[in-house]
Structures are given as structure tokens and as C-alpha cells.
Amino acid sequence: MATKQSTLQHIPTISLDPMLPHWAAIAKIQDETPGVATYALEFQDLAFRTAYSFLPGQFNMLYLPGIGEVAISISSDPETPHELLHTIRVAGNVTQAIERLKVGDQIGVRGPYGSAWPVEVARGEDLIFVAGGIGLAPLRPAIYHVIRHRAEYGKITILAGARSPEDMLYHDEFDAWREHDIEVIPTVDRADESWQGRVGVVPMLFYSLRPDPRNTTVFTCGPEIMMRFVAYEAMARRIPTERVFVSLERNMKCAVGFCGHCQYGPTFLCKEGPVLSFAQIEPFYNVEEF
Amino acid sequence: MAENLPSPGEQVVIAKPALQSVFKALDSAGYTLIAPVLRNEAIIYDEVSSVDELPIGWTAETGPGHYRLEQRGDESFFGFPAGPSTWKGYLYPSRLKLFSVSKNGGGYQTVPNQDVSPSYAFIGVRACELAAIAIQDRVFIEGPFQDPHYEARREKAFILAVNCTEPGETCFCASMGAGPRCTQAFDLALTELRDAFVIEIGSPLGARMLLDVEWSFAGALELGRADQKITDAENQMGRTLDTSDLPGLLYDNLEHPRWDDVAERCLSCTNCTLVCPTCFCSDMKDISDLTGANTERVRVWDSCFNPDFSYVHGGHLRPNIRARYRQWLTHKLASWIDQFGTSGCVGCGRCITWCPVGIDLTEEIAAIRDEA
Ligand SMILES: Cc1cc2nc3c(=O)[nH]c(=O)nc-3n(C[C@H](O)[C@H](O)[C@H](O)COP(=O)(O)OP(=O)(O)OC[C@H]3O[C@@H](n4cnc5c(N)ncnc54)[C@H](O)[C@@H]3O)c2cc1C
Ligand code: SF4
Ligand code: SF4
Questions:
Q1: Which of A289, B43, B68, B273 has a Cα at 20 to 30 A from A162?
Q2: Separation of CA B334 and ligand 2 centre (Å)
Q3: Complex ipTM above 0.85?
Q4: How far apart are CA B118 and CA A2, in angstroms?
Q5: Taking the domains of chain B in order of start, what are their residue ranges?
Q6: How many angstroms is it from B83 CA to the middle of ligand 3?
Q7: DSSP code of residue B31
Q8: Which residue of chain B comes nearest to A101, CA vs CA?
Q9: Burial state string for B152-166 with b = 16 or more CB within 10 A and e = fewer than 16
Q10: Averaged pLDDT, groups of 10, chain A, 290 residues long
Q11: Range of the domain at A63
């Protein structure tokens, strides 16, 4: 519709559209486990690259023109934000298209968005990380943080579950993490001859832990059913639900609180989430199809 | 020229035909006028240039799943309840290009949508609709991120509000504290009397639109009559909704049997979300040309009643209508308050009128309250 010009009207203020992507080139691709690879991204705009920073647990929206946009957590060290990594599991349309990309190809990035693992609040406490499958990716920035600030934390335990030994994400880093006085306990649903670790679902690893309920914080990410059992195991050990943090996933189209898709009761998972305390979601967690 | 114009807060009286001069003033100020008109057996909003295009003498009978035009037998300009259109359709278009992308060597080039946004003058905005616009302001402007397209349209918009004197059978704005009296953010607000309009000045810009109009300050008689009409309207609401602790009621009853009951009736047609002046959910689509080298990213209205709305890889999280209706109503009346500090419902009744099976949220809430 044509607009007539006028001097009488209210003067609009022009602001930048938060839906516009920033273009980044793929600097490196590292295969992780079957169907999972880590992509190093480098922003084309130098000023934007220099200014970019994120908190552990935050995510970006990755965009391929003509194909679509998906929410992917940042999996790298928050203190080296120019070495920006995303660990992506092939699921459907967009992630399959990302899998076909090569080093040098470009991808649109918006972010960072969402809430962070409360690493500052947990300072001085024992920390238990519990990951299922790809769920270790959003936890890794928090792991890097506590390694850098190791003296500020008490006992640190990482429980990592995978379907099979070959699906164990970041397993070649586990020894390096252990060097920082971190206990890493991997478990698989199905073992093979080579596997020397535990067998069974992740929440079962809690059975061997004796966490101090007054001084322990839990960060967990994985399938919802797994996170539910992790929360129950933590509660059974009297760890308050305010100190159990989960990262939730819902359909996300905009990540800036406009599209409405990621609502989880009172919260927008792109704003107040994806990281929430179990206390925040407890009233809704058992409601079917919520 | 020494301008003798009323100031914000003052009330004036104009003869009814003089409204045409206000239209003219808006037109010369560069506005595209959008007003109620008769189209396809309903009163909807569309572009106009003259007051003759208003549905003068018409009203509509509304009810659950029911809307029928009727002759009033008088010459009222605004004697009808809200129809299926909303101002949301202008401030937040159902389809909007966000940007286009073209392949450029090994990379891409983005061109933002920089179309000059239209300058609208909205004619006949009801109190519930002002409340709905204020609610969408919170979503699109007052949060951590701003939608520049909404913001530009919104800031340019001129609002000629109308105090509601003719509530419909499905209206309950009084229960929601959203009407029928216009109390917020308008440039001019008019109350229709039999042979005159009482106009409250809301802004200096509004006052300037009276430059070529013969007006006089409203006297006690006119003010009294206008006030009485609005008070009468308040007492004639077709419906009521008990709003006491709606969040508590809904959060405590997420497994109430009434959800199964309403799921039996609801068709998940999305009508209620499309006609609702506050519903804001959207989806993004990419539209590429045949070569695949050029793509437009487009935002379109979406609805929580669409099965795909809750899709994540591996399945739909709300496959059943029960969960979708519950999401809609719980969002409107409970979680909206957590999210934006206001209810998501202004009591305009559109979702009741335009539901093909006549589902009435006030009845659903009453049923949940009774059996809670
Ligand atoms: C906050 C957040 C962080 C995430 N972090 C990671 C990560 O680090 N690594 C990783 O591999 N995956 C992550 N995911 C999941 C990832 O977004 C989905 O796997 C991806 O959207 C699937 O898209 P697709 O087009 O390949 O699949 P399709 O099945 O074709 O999905 C079609 C569309 O539906 C939407 N959608 C589908 N599944 C999801 C989902 N689970 N969450 C949100 N939207 C979805 C997307 O818009 C997607 O484009 C994250 C999701 C969220 C919400
Ligand atoms: S929920 Fe229904 S009554 Fe309430 S504002 Fe929306 S359309 Fe109007
Ligand atoms: S409540 Fe009515 S209008 Fe809304 S989706 Fe169900 S059938 Fe359609």
C-alpha cells in the first residue's frame, strides 16, 4: 500500500530487526559420534566477531536460506568466544542440510539467546553434571568454566550417558577433564566387548554418589524422561529442587519471545529458559502433553 | 495562524456530519484511513475515504457461533459490536516479509525489509481494542527485543477511539477491566449521541484534526448523556467472567475433566486465535525462487491449535485437541499474566462469536470453577 508523506505524524524510531542473521563461515568440522559433528563458526563481520560473547548454556539460531532455522546450543568455552563451536546431531531437514556443508560454507547465526547454567551462583559448592547423549553439548561450556575456575568449586562429578560406547560424546576429552580433579563417570545402555565402564541408564549412577544436600548443585541436560529421573534421584538425596537445573527443548521459531512456540507454562524457553530450575517447572513436569 | 484548539483532556461537541472534516484532515495529514465497513455480510475494517462508507444504521446480532447483520432503524454511525476484523491485522500483518537473502559468491547477502511502513488512522477503535493494542505493545515493543515492523506501524498510527455504547451478546470487557470506556492511548475518543459526537481530546495531534471542524466545548448536558450511555453499556454486557485468581484456578486444574469435554466439541480450526486481537503467535517460512539463489523469509500468523505448532523432532508434543485447547485458554487467562503482567483476554467476545461450534470461554471457566 502506498504511503503518503506527512510532517504531522508521530515520529517512529527505527531499530534493528532481531530476526536478521549474521553470516558466519564454517572454519572447521570435527566428526564426533555417528550422526554428530562439531562446527567451528567464524563471523564474517569482524566488529561483530570481536564483540560477540555468550554465557554457558546459551544457544544460537542457525539459519540456512531456503531450508530453515534451528536452535543449537553453544558447546565451546565462554572465555574464548571467537572460537565458537556448535555440536549438532542430525535430526531432520535443517540438520541434514548442515551435515552436507563443507569448511568455508556460510551459515546464518542469531544469538546468543536464553538463560545460562548458574555457574556463579553455584560457586563454592559441589557440582554434579548429568548428561544424556547430545545433552553433554550445552553442558560443556559450563564444564570448561569450572575447569578454568577449578579452585572456586568443591567436588565436581560428571555423569555421562550414551546409548552405546560409540555414541559417547567428547569421550576423548574425559581424561583431560579428570586431570582437573573431576570425576567423570560414563555409562552406556548397551555395551560392547571394548567397553570397560558402567552399563545402565544415567540416573542409576546416582546410587553410588553421596552428595551433600546442603552444598550440591545439579546441572542436567538430556531426554526429558532422563532429566525427570535425575531430579527424583536428587530429591531423594534431599538436594532442593531450586538447586537442580535442567535445560528444556521446545519448538522455537524466533528465540526472541515473539513466535510463542517455546512456551512452557509461565515461561518462554527462549527467554527465561532453556535453563530452568526444577522447582520452576515441577508443577507442569508430569502434566501430559503440556 | 493563531490556532484555537482544545487541549488533551478537554471534551468538545461536533455535529455528526462534521466527522467528515476530521476524515479529511487525517487524509491531508497523510494517513490511510481504516474504518468499519459493510462487506460480505459482516462489519469489518477496511480502507475508507468518506464517512458515508461507515455502516451507518447497521448493527449485528452476535451469539456463540452466531453473527447476523441487522438494520437498526436509526442513523447510528457506531451502533454495532466488534466484528471479525482486528487492528492487529494492520499493526502485525498476517504475512510479512522479514528480509530477503541472495547467494553472493560463496556467501550470502541479506536485504532487510525496509519498506516504509504504512501510516494508519484507525477509526472506531473500541476500549477493548485499545487494551488489546496495549497488550501487543508489551509483546512486541516493551520486552527485551523489539519488532521494528510492529513498532514503526504502531508509533505512526493515529487512533480515533469510540466509547462503546452497544455491547454485544458475547461481550464481557467490563469483567476484564478493558471497557467499555476508552481510558488509554488515543488521539481522539468519541461518544456517539443521537445527533452529535462528544469528543475527548487525547493528544495535541488529535486536536489538530479538528482544525477545520466547527466545535464547541461540551456542556454538562452532553457530558452527562455521553457518560450515561457508557454506563448503560457497562450494565448491558452480554456475558461476565469471574476473574478471581484465574492463574491459580487453571494451574490447579490442568487435568480437569472439562478439558476432555471441550475437546469433544473443539474442531481445532484456529478461528478463535485468528480473530483474537491479542493472539500473537507466528511461524517463519522461506520462499525461494526456482534457482534457489534468492529466498524471502516471511513471518506468518500461526496458532497453538495447529498440530505442527508443538512439533519437535520425533513428534508433536500436543497431539490431542484437549492439550491444545488447554494451552490456549491457560495462556490467555493464566500464563499471560506471568509473562506480560496482564491478562491475554480483553473480553471482546470474538472467539465466542466466530467459533463454528460456539465454544464460550466464559462458560468453560465457569464449568471448571464449579467442579474444581
Ligand atoms: C534451546 C535448544 C538447544 C538445542 N541445542 C541443540 C544442540 O546443541 N545440538 C543439537 O543437535 N540439537 C539441539 N537442539 C535441538 C535442535 O534444535 C533440533 O534437533 C532441530 O531443530 C531439528 O531440526 P531439523 O530441521 O533438523 O528437524 P525436523 O524434524 O525437520 O524439524 C523441523 C523444524 O521443527 C523445529 N524443531 C524440530 N525439533 C526441534 C527441537 N528439538 N527443538 C526446537 N525446535 C525443533 C525446527 O524449527 C526445525 O527446523 C536444541 C534445541 C533447543 C530448543
Ligand atoms: S480470548 Fe476471546 S474474548 Fe478474549 S480477547 Fe481473545 S477473542 Fe476476545
Ligand atoms: S475453540 Fe472453536 S474457534 Fe477455537 S479452535 Fe476450537 S472450534 Fe475453532
A1: A289
A2: 13
A3: yes
A4: 7
A5: 11-94+113-235, 246-282+302-371
A6: 17
A7: P
A8: B106
A9: bbbbbbbbbbbbbbb
A10: 40 66 97 98 94 97 97 98 97 97 97 96 96 98 98 97 96 97 96 91 89 96 95 95 97 96 96 96 89
A11: 2-112
